[in-house]
Design goal:
Layout (H helix, E strand, L loop, with lengths): L20 E5 L6 H9 L17 E6 L4 H9 L4 E2 L2 E6 L14 H9 L3 E7 L15 H32 L3 H17 L7 H4 L5 H6 L8 E6 L10 H12 L3 E5 L1 H8 L3 H11 L5 H12 L2 E7 L4 E7 L4 H8 L1 H5 L1 E8 H7 L2 H6 L4 E3 L9 E7 L2
Helix pairs in contact: 1-9, 4-5
């Protein structure tokens, strides 16, 4: 087995843990860099009306919106709030032939290989002043162009791997035989040129071989339908096609107006809220998209809250209490005794830990407890 060489340096949090990375991809001029600007509330990602405006990937860290944290901070009488975060990468536009190196395709594809999830921005607006690389607006054709290029590049990777292990497989090496079976199945699935849910097609003993290849077509994907401000509330005929495509391929879809989101990023909180109300929208598209990424990666949040700080911690679904404690500090996991768990909803309703204990909603959990999203946790451990 081998590892791909990493071309992008991952940012880390205060503990040195690598942040989850989401790549923003799509054809040129669909609004990727504008969306990135809005996501990161900066002007770091240049946006212009010509292909390959973005060449080197722009990278930014975005806080995951969590309405519970400021409420908890007020109850705990602290101003120090530390939310969870996701790293976003604005990757240059892909074109037909990218898998063969067209439009600096090899460099851009390598950047996509290094992300944990993909946001594919799809143009769902008409504008004669904004050039479309294919000459017309056709979101499904755009999606299929991107997916085909990713699949073709992945097929080349699988083929190279098959050539490397062929001798060992013919010699009945157990691992090589199993891996060759996985590679053959992958080649068949990649013929469809769409994203692959590996858990639906591969057994537990096969999945490590799939993950080793770091293929783009097996990464979780969200289709981001970029519309004009007039279609933000209800969508349009283009977004209906994208929604149907996403549903048929087990993917998620969010409607967003990248231009509006960029304008919102320049407003204060109250002004932004008023602007959204004027548009008839309850929450910004960016907030919905970030939450969708968090959900797509099957992430959960537990919280530590006190006078010092209110802090959100990221874990994967199914994480047990000792491992959650280890996210805070490895010694917490090693010396884990039990976890004192208070549901966030109950804490907000009752107003304090003492009230929660009196009402019996705070409970002690052992090492087999599976953490739930929104758990307020105090870990007891022995050094």
């Amino acid at each position: 087995m081998y590892e791909q060489k990493q071309a992008l340096n991952r940012k880390t949090d205060k503990k040195g843990n690598k942040m989850l990375r989401t790549g923003i991809v799509g054809l040129p001029n669909v609004g990727k860099s504008t969306l990135f600007n809005a996501l990161t509330s900066t002007r770091n990602a240049q946006s212009a009306n010509y292909p390959f405006c973005t060449i080197e990937p722009n990278i930014g860290v975005v806080e995951v919106p969590d309405e519970r944290l400021p409420v908890l901070a007020k109850l705990c009488k602290t101003e120090n709030i530390i939310p969870t975060a996701i790293e976003f990468v604005d990757i240059a536009g892909l074109v037909k032939g990218a898998s063969k190196g067209e439009g600096l395709g090899n460099q851009f594809l390598q950047n996509i290989r290094e992300v944990d999830a993909i946001i594919q921005v799809v143009r769902c607006f008409d504008d004669v002043n904004t050039i479309h690389v294919e000459g017309k607006v056709d979101p499904i054709s755009d999606i299929e162009t991107i997916n085909t290029e990713l699949a073709l590049a992945d097929m080349a990777s699988v083929e190279r791997r098959q050539q490397r292990i062929s001798k060992a497989a013919k010699g009945n090496d157990k691992d090589a035989v199993l891996e060759n079976k996985v590679l053959t199945k992958l080649m068949e699935l990649l013929q469809d040129c769409t994203f692959i849910n590996i858990k639906e097609h591969f057994d537990e003993d096969e999945i490590p071989f799939v993950k080793m290849l770091n293929l783009m077509s097996v990464k979780p994907v969200i289709y981001c339908a970029n519309v004009s401000e007039f279609d933000l509330k209800d969508g349009n005929d283009y977004t209906k096609k994208v929604q149907e495509y996403a549903a048929n391929h087990g993917a998620e879809m969010v409607i967003i107006s990248a231009k509006i989101e960029e304008e919102l990023a320049e407003l204060g909180a109250d002004e932004a809220k008023e602007y959204l109300n004027d548009l008839g929208i309850e929450d910004s598209g960016i907030n919905r998209m970030i939450k969708s990424v968090y959900s797509l990666l099957k992430l959960r949040t537990f919280i530590t809250a006190g006078e010092k700080e209110v802090r959100a911690w990221t874990i994967t679904a199914g994480t047990k209490a000792p491992q959650a404690a280890g996210v805070i500090h490895t010694d917490f996991e090693k010396g884990f005794i039990r976890a004192e768990i208070t549901p966030c909803k109950d804490f907000i309703e009752l107003g304090s830990y003492n009230a929660c204990k009196e009402k019996g909603v705070t409970r002690l959990e052992g090492k087999d407890y599976v953490m739930q999203d929104g758990d307020l946790a105090h870990f007891r451990f022995a050094l």
